[in-house]
Amino acid sequence: MDFTPMYAAHDAFRRDLDRLRAAADAGLGADETVRAGWRTFRRQLEIHHRAEDAALWPPMRRRLADNPDELALLDAMEAEHAAVDPLLDEVDVVMDDPDPVRLREHAARLSSALRDHLDHEEQDLLPLVTEDEWTAFAAHIRKSQGLRGAAEFFPWLMDDATPGGSRGAFLASLPLPARLVYRVGWRPRYVRARRWAVLSG
Q1: How far apart (Å, rounded) are the C-alpha atoms in residues 74 and 14?
Q2: Which residues of the chain have pLDDT under 50?
Q3: Which long-range contacts (CB under 8 A, 24 or more apart) does 196-200 make?
Q4: With contact defined as beta carbons under 8 Å apart, do 14 and 117 qualify?
Q5: Of 3, 13, 20, 166, which cross-links 8 as Cys (Cβ 3.0–4.6 Å)?
Q6: d(Cα 158, Cα 118) in Å, to the nearest integer?
Q7: Per-residue pLDDT at 2
Q8: pTM for the whole thing?
């Protein structure tokens, strides 16, 4: 089964965690381009996690009901989601704190917890997912995003992607019309918002 879209999304989350920590280290949490990047990251993460909570974990739990070890793994996935939510809220609170140490501390905590979760999911959970479960999850993501969400999701995912990585492979797998809409419409609009731009200037 091809989990390239999942790996691509996870790579994009890791990229933005790196950006958040770089902004925190530089004392740039109040910069509007950092705020814009953070808002997009949080929105995409929440859509992703809600789709897992609603469309992936429940059917897996029903199918694996007689396997205590795999049910324990699903329990761990849900607990990790629950642990990440308050860390997101904590970062929101300290983004404009005049003391940059607080943002550095909270960004580090979020980065550690979310990276551990993504690694755990990739290594232990994805090998258990069936084709029907994967199809249901992908359909839920598409419905949640809609056309308006897709206009943000695709350029966010592809931001700074390289051709040889999972995100480059994901773009290459899309139908030609979708790639054209991305290049001509969605990406230029996304770039104009200058998310995280202060980090490159």
Answers
A1: 22
A2: none
A3: 196/16, 196/19, 196/23, 196/33, 196/34, 196/36, 196/37, 197/33, 198/23, 198/28, 198/31, 198/33, 198/34, 199/19, 199/22, 199/23, 199/26, 199/28, 199/33, 199/34
A4: no
A5: 166
A6: 18
A7: 86
A8: 0.93
Predicted local distance difference test score (pLDDT) of residue 201? 58
Which pLDDT tens digit goes with each residue over 162-176? 777 777 788 888 888
As a whole number of Å, the CA-based R_g of the chain is: 17
Contacts of 47 (CB under 8 A, 6+ apart): 141, 144, 145, 149, 153
Residue for token pair 């931001």: 159
**Would you list the domain boundaries of the chain?**
4-200
At the second CATH level, the architecture of 4-200 is Up-down Bundle (1.20)
3-state class (DSSP) for residue 27 = coil
Residue 25 CA to residue 163 CA, distance in Å, equals 29
